[in-house]
Design a protein that fits this description.
about 0% strand; globular; about 75% helix; single chain; 19 helices
Length: about 425
């Protein structure tokens, strides 16, 4: 009886930790995306103004900034992930909020400087990705696994939709308070949000007994931003194939196209600030409902293969349609097609399977999470540069710049689907974590 009571108490403590991690992770996702979306229009306006209304130059600056964030993240993610396996996860969740606070102060002070706007845009994105995506995903892997991890991640991800509604609403409110030409006021809101996010203290998910001994030399060696190559040199065939597919799916992530979307809606579709805000909020609501209801339902009703194939298909069709012409109805009409798989939702079923294969290879949770994220970051950096320069090339040649969206659908959905169909055996998608 005593042993049974003790076991019940242990299970209760584990469940309480799961509940707390899920709630805090969801709030962290919400605040991180609000931090990104509450300056979308302001950021685009200030960069455009700093570039003297040269749209091609503004697109290149934004894409290079996104790429710089990705490349810097390679180093930060790798060192941070390795350290977290030794000293715990909790303290690393403060990196993003601190960066948001500093970015708000810097851009409010120097709103006409291309160097400041571009540098701190990259700094904010890199830091928020590290504390939110890398550390958040690591904490979730510490307490969840298998299909439970997939469903919980999808439900937490539904808050991205809510954040996409809240961010523009805050930005619109602040811009109404500001006089024309004083759009920088939203960056003070960003600093305030950083302070609020710092109060959302995540619990420690890595117990002392599970931590690896701290090794200074090993940590320094982990500074190699390309250590993710170990996934290919030491990983199983399944790891190599799955991590390649998941990384390519990153190319259709919204963050890699957000600058293109802002330019497209403002300069090509001639949407006004309030119309853009309303569209983003509507998209956010639809994404929230899809993440909370549709994606978890699909995960339960379909196989890993079926879910991934379906979401790759809908992503490809959605991106292919939305930029066929400078037509607001095409742009809006493509939205339903994108809901099941956009913003990395298409990776939801494959990720727990990859986690299981990586654990079977003996890779540490924090370190391997950083490796996967770094590879996705590298692919995302390439995507940002490709899309920015492809848009500029289309403008120069007089070609429909909306084909940038079709390119994203091809690289981020059609290509990974082709690789999965040609190389992955369905038995490789079956693990012990159901």
């Amino acid at each position: 009886m005593a042993a049974e009571a003790k076991d019940t108490k242990v299970q209760q403590v584990k469940q309480e930790l799961k509940d707390e991690v899920f709630q805090k992770y969801g709030l962290q996702v919400l605040l991180a995306v609000v931090a990104h979306t509450m300056t979308l229009q302001t950021e685009a306006i200030l960069i455009r103004n700093a570039c003297k209304n040269d749209l091609a130059k503004a697109a290149r600056i934004s894409s290079l900034s996104n790429a710089a964030a990705s490349l810097m993240g390679l180093l930060v993610n790798q060192i941070g992930g390795k350290l977290s396996d030794s000293i715990g996860r909790k303290q690393f969740f403060l990196v993003g909020p601190l960066a948001q606070f500093l970015t708000g102060i810097a851009c409010f002070t120097k709103p006409d400087s291309i160097a400041v706007l571009g540098t701190f845009k990259a700094f904010k994105m890199m830091s928020t990705t590290f504390s939110g995506t890398v550390m958040g995903s690591t904490a979730m892997r510490d307490v969840f696994e298998g299909k439970e991890l997939a469903v919980k991640t999808a439900k937490a991800g539904s808050l991205i939709g809510l954040a996409i509604m809240i961010g523009p609403l805050i930005e619109g409110f602040l811009l109404k308070l500001a006089k024309p030409g004083n759009e920088r006021i939203t960056y003070m809101g960003l600093s305030t949000l950083g302070l609020i996010a710092a109060l959302n203290a995540m619990p420690e998910t890595l117990p002392d007994k599970s931590r690896k001994p701290f090794d200074l030399m090993s940590t320094l060696q982990s500074a190699n931003p390309f250590a993710f190559i170990k996934l290919y040199t030491h990983g199983s065939p399944a790891v190599k194939k799955l991590v390649t597919i998941i990384s390519l799916q990153t190319m259709s992530d919204g963050k890699n196209l957000s600058d293109t979307v802002q330019i497209w809606t403002r300069e090509h579709l001639k949407m006004q600030m309030e119309s853009i805000r309303n569209f983003v909020m509507g998209y956010g609501f639809a994404s929230m409902m899809a993440g909370a209801k549709l994606v978890p339902w699909l995960l339960k009703k379909t196989s890993v293969w079926g879910f991934t194939s379906l979401t790759n298909l809908t992503n490809f069709l959605g991106f292919a349609v939305r930029g066929l012409a400078e037509n607001i109805y095409l742009f809006f009409g493509a939205l339903p097609l994108m809901l099941p798989g956009v913003n990395a939702s298409s990776t939801t079923a494959l990720t727990p399977v990859l986690n299981s294969h990586m654990s079977a290879c003996g890779f540490g949770v924090g370190e391997s999470t950083a490796w996967v994220n770094n590879l996705r970051v590298l692919v995302g950096a390439a995507a940002s540069i490709i899309y920015g320069y492809f848009y500029a090339w289309c403008r120069k040649k007089g070609i429909n710049a909306g084909l940038t969206f079709a390119l994203a659908g091809t690289l981020g959905a059609a290509l990974p689907q082709a690789i999965m169909m040609l190389t992955v055996r369905k038995e490789e998608l079956e693990t012990d974590n159901k």
